[in-house]
TrEMBL record:
TM annotation in the entry: 22-41, 48-70, 766-785
Location of the Putative glutamine amidotransferase domain: 417-607
Protein name stated in the entry: Putative glutamine amidotransferase domain-containing protein
UniProt xrefs under InterPro entries: Class_I_gatase-like (IPR029062), Filamin/ABP280_repeat-like (IPR017868), GATase1-like (IPR010768), Ig-like_fold (IPR013783)
Keyword terms: Membrane, Transmembrane, Transmembrane helix
Amino acid sequence: MSDWIREQFILEWPNVWADQHWLVPAWLLGGALFLLIVWAYRTIAAPLWLKLSCAALKTLAIALLAMILVEPMRSESKPVPGANLFAILADRSQSLQVSDRGQSKTRADLLKARLDRSEAWQVRLGQEFDVRRYEFDDQLAPVADFQEFAAAGESSSMVSSLSAVADRYAERPIAGILLFTDGNATDLSEANIDWSQFPPIFPVILGAEQTANDIGVRRVTASQTNFEAAPVTLTAEIEGAGFAGKSVEVELLDDKGERLQTQTVSDIRDDQIFSVRFQVKPTQRGVLFYQVRAFAKSETGLFEDTGKSSEATLLNNNRMVVVDRGQGPYKVLYVSGRPNWEFKFLNRALAGDDEIKLDALVRIAKREPKFQFRDKDSNANRIFTNSDDEQKEQVEQYDEAVLLRVGKLEQGELTGGFPKSPDELFEYHALILDDLEADFFTQDQKSLVQDFVSLRGGGFLMLGGIESFSEGGYHRTPIGELLPIYLTAVAKPPQQAEFALEMTREGLLEPWVRVRATEQEEAQRLEEMPRLRSLNAVGALKPGATQLLTAPLEQGETRPVLVTQRFGKGRTAAMLMGDLWRWKLHQKSPDNEDLEKAWRQTVRWLVGDVPQRVKVEAVRQQADPSRPIEIAVEVNDENFKPLDNASVTIEVSTPDGETLTLTAAAKDAVSGQYAANYVPRTPGAYRALVTARNPDGSEIQQTATGWVSEPAGEEFLTLKPNRDFLETIAQQSGGEVVDLADLDNFVRTLSERDIPIVEPKVHAVWHTWAVFLLAVGLLVSEWGIRRWKGLA
């Protein structure tokens, strides 16, 4: 009815004058009649307001009739029926199954009623445009109508669906896209999308800001540190609506569903995110999964009995996270120039850590010069003098150092002393040198140590002593180049007998350097530590080096004690004190384990980022949870150079207990890079065991990875419609946001917008009964007023 009234009674301003040769006569006739009206009313004895009113009514009527002589017409551009495309996209993801506060129907029910093809807006849209209808969840699907519409999809690939429609009709005239959605797309990425290249998008926002009651776990992140026993910190971000002032229970479960920890958060606020942190100490290595779930404390047991729940949905009340505990144990090689207390406490500290395997070479006798006069027939090292082993062929000769092999070594391992080839040394993840001069190594071994750090990515630590750093002759050697301090322009040795330790600001920020929980406790620990007496003098710090511990001197100066630096793919550290063992021997309490803890954390830092020969990472190719997982594998040879022609197989274990085998192919023609794609079909935790083999079929290494598929968690990340995002794409594409109840008016005004294919349409404004009715109405009104006042 409103459209009929508008078309019949609202006069549009003319923009075309058909008979312009009548323009001058019309002006003359109108002007003459106006003057006659003015003259006539001047002679009438009546109030001024009455004469002005009557004159105005008659003047308007005369002007309207004079304008008709010129034949005013209206020229418009109307879309050619059926020549332009118009797309309708309906979101069928399960996030539309929720009901908003105060609504008895779900968003999907309200949408389906408006998508009925018999609706007036759809009828009119079909009369003017070639309408194409689509539904989308994880994929875009064309439909003839929306009779079978059901919000059951596990994701909402809105961006990719819009892109697909825009690409499909890029070469065809498309007037716009009507998008029905709540705006919570699961395929949003950080990349900026140029929406101006899209057809005009008209989002119809489904859902209200005031959602129904809900508690949702938005995300869970895991982080590992070098603290004692390497605890894992799990942080969960939780948001509630409709539970303001109430308490929320947050539980941590393992992959078997057993409850590990529980925390209660009191007096939460609506629509405000709060965080809950858990710390766990896993007892297993490899890939582990944890689950965090949250619920109102007043609704305990709702997961077993969903009838207790007052929430809009329970699909977002839990989230899983994967934790990779690595593929230990990590191997550390310790080489010392003499038996000492330092090795005793280091070995004791690492004995209780099953993730660290310590092998040691402890020199118990030095070698003698090879060419010198000897006063005896035996060629054995002097340590064997007058012993039963002196004449044995397998004992070290006089020009060889005698090394004691310590650790759980296999037969033949390290029997030749310090490794002489990359395949021997590169098996280790970290190397520690303690009070050992540079001449102990051959030139090739010195270069090998440098390659161990720069190419293999190993960790390197040199401890202080009388034969370390400058005193050990490491200046101008490949090992000296590794160190984070210069060995030239060495400062004079300090004269004071004892030194205290002081932690720098950078040291306080490094978890592996700290031993106590708070800064105050750390300061107290340093104050109570026994004073040290051995400190190597070195030059300045190298660019990029970080000083973590210092020794304050009496003159107000400081000397570096612990310095670290990145070198190539690895990391190096210089611990310039040579008697850290005093910390244990002279402490007040024999039960104090600070030194052991410090050693474990230091070694964990050394091996923390050391790469394996086979490195694997599971990455989702796009933000959409329905997209494939790319299992990327990097394979190196024994020298840690990219290995081509390797054979890589991947065994994927699904949440259903099934196992399938994939074969990774070369990736992007990059040497040593392999990849395979996998599309998770079932929500839950996935494990993948990667086996890499040499071209000859021999196994290189097995490593594991894992990922979590939670489409419902991403879909119900928030129940509020993403109005800001929809308004942005509407504005940038040239469209506008449309209200669900205002579709009829929107379709009616579509023809007034910029349409690709239009045709001119001209209609006479004067040749309508409404114009004549208006003119007659003005004259009758003027006559009626005169009759009313007795002027006729």
